[in-house]
């Protein structure tokens, strides 16, 4: 018996009896005696071919999810469930005998939550989870129903606006002038993160020599809650640790509040010098004015009075006392407008809130995200004088700091119903981030942080409207479940991360 060539592909064969319809009547003499019609059969041997490919029609999904859907249904075209959570098989012809390779069935998959549903989905709105979610979505403002592409384009617009502002950075008459003198640049942690000269914080006690600190005044106004002030600053370097405490002493009224959103070291790089007392065994820090100058010395020490860990906010809470040792200084006005002069022996309380659950350039997820929202509440509770600015810093003082400030503004707006009647052309989150960047560059630095603001706003809006969790768009599956666990490509487009290089000068 001749062996089959190794290069010849092997095909599975199938034995099939097929009926043969004679083209002309058989001669009378060949009919059997019982005179009954007879069907002739032929034995056919043919390769076992795969079933015809199924054409998949996907409505309302991005191209990446479409590819995954095609893969799933091309693998198993014969079984498609028709229920609320699974795709519905819509054949071109209900008669299975008429199905041909040239006219395969069409599979329709429910669309992405952020997109509009098909007319058929709207007709069935009352009887399926997708319909309930469609009804819930109709209560949300348009800016919270944007798709990924729209958010990406808006973030690019924010970057374009910032590049236009930078064109005026060498003009001293511009609001976006950047002072690049050596004594200023040496105090920056990163070479490309500056403070606009028009909004920068100026240190009072060291004004005779160098009043620069990489910190910016931020003001956000709301029709509901009025004007709220912040100071966004970088994580101090060792040489500038004293400056942060001077700023807290000078700029805050009543007990000050400092919110720290970065670890001291991340990815084997220092993100912030540990400028505060760590625990009750290391409860004191002294800061003397070491720089030569013409102003009188002003020396002070920090005393850690209390330390505790808040489980719900996942935050280290420190109550720190600033005690003047030498010199005099005038602090910011309190709620009555009275500016207190501080001398030896005088003290001021500052609450230090240290949150570690937020990775650089990213966003907190899961329990860390819930804890961050609790931290926002905690910071406002500790800030006893509402007119006193919250001091917020991460490493560069723009990404996580900007996102925190934006959240602190967005959450009360949702609770007061400010966004309930926003028209379709208005996007208050985009407008807010753009206003923050007018006051400090790169605020809400990455696209993932920008998207996070929309996600949190949508979740909180759905909660306030009383939409059950199972009917919220964010909870609905967008791709059918598969036993082979085909991985869905991420819908998030990561923004290009500009380099953040530390300054070489001290």
Automatic annotation (TrEMBL):
Residues 370-451 form the Tyrosine specific protein phosphatases domain. It holds the Pfam family Y_phosphatase. Gene3D superfamilies: Protein tyrosine phosphatase superfamily. One of its GO terms (molecular function) is protein tyrosine phosphatase activity. This is Uncharacterized protein. SUPFAM superfamilies: (Phosphotyrosine protein) phosphatases II (SSF52799). SMART domains: PTPc, PTPc_motif. Residues 79-135, 482-506 are annotated as: Disordered. It comes from Orbilia javanica. PROSITE patterns: TYR_PHOSPHATASE_1 (PS00383), TYR_PHOSPHATASE_2 (PS50056), TYR_PHOSPHATASE_PTP (PS50055). Belongs to the protein-tyrosine phosphatase family. Non-receptor class subfamily. Residues 151-460 form the Tyrosine-protein phosphatase domain. Residues 482-493 have a biased composition (Polar residues). CDD domains: PTP_fungal.
């Amino acid at each position: 018996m001749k062996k089959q060539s190794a290069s010849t592909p092997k095909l599975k064969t199938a034995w099939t009896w097929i009926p043969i319809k004679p083209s002309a009547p058989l001669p009378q003499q060949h009919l059997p005696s019982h005179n009954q019609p007879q069907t002739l059969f032929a034995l056919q041997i043919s390769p076992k071919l795969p079933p015809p490919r199924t054409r998949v029609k996907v409505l309302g999904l991005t191209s990446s999810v479409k590819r995954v859907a095609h893969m799933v249904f091309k693998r198993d075209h014969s079984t498609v469930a028709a229920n609320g959570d699974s795709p519905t098989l819509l054949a071109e012809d209900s008669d299975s005998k008429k199905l041909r390779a040239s006219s395969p069935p069409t599979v329709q998959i429910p669309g992405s939550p952020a997109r509009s549903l098909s007319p058929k989905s709207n007709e069935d709105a009352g009887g399926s989870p997708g319909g309930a979610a469609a009804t819930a979505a109709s209560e949300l403002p348009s800016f919270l129903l944007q798709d990924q592409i729209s958010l990406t384009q808006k973030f690019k617009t924010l970057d374009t606006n910032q590049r236009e502002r930078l064109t005026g950075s060498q003009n001293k008459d511009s609001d976006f002038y950047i002072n690049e003198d050596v004594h200023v640049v040496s105090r920056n942690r990163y070479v490309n993160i500056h403070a606009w000269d028009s909004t920068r914080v100026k240190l009072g006690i060291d004004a005779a020599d160098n009043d620069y600190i990489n910190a910016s005044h931020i003001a956000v106004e709301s029709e509901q809650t009025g004007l709220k002030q912040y100071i966004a600053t970088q994580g101090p370097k060792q040489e500038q640790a004293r400056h942060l405490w001077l700023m807290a002493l000078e700029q805050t009224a009543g007990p000050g509040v400092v919110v720290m959103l970065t670890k001291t070291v991340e990815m084997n790089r220092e993100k912030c010098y540990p400028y505060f007392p760590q625990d009750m065994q290391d409860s004191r820090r002294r800061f003397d004015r070491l720089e030569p100058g013409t102003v009188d010395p002003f020396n002070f020490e920090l005393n850690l009075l209390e330390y505790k860990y808040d489980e719900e906010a996942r935050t280290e809470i420190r109550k720190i006392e600033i005690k003047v040792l030498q010199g005099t200084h005038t602090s910011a006005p309190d709620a009555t407008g009275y500016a207190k002069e501080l001398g030896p022996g005088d003290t001021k309380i500052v609450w230090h809130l240290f949150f570690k659950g937020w990775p650089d350039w990213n966003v907190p997820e899961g329990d860390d995200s819930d804890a961050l929202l609790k931290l926002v509440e905690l910071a406002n509770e500790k800030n006893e004088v509402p007119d006193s600015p919250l001091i917020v810093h991460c490493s560069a003082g723009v990404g996580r700091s900007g996102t925190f400030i934006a959240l602190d503004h967005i959450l009360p707006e949702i609770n007061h119903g400010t966004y309930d009647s926003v028209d379709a052309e208005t996007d208050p989150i985009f407008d807010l981030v753009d206003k923050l960047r007018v006051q400090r560059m790169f605020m809400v630095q990455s696209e993932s942080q920008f998207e996070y603001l929309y996600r949190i706003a949508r979740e909180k809006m759905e909660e306030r409207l009383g939409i059950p969790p199972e009917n919220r768009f964010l909870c609905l599956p967008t791709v059918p479940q598969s036993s082979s666990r085909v991985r869905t490509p991420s819908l998030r487009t990561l923004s290009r991360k500009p380099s953040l290089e530390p300054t070489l000068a001290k």
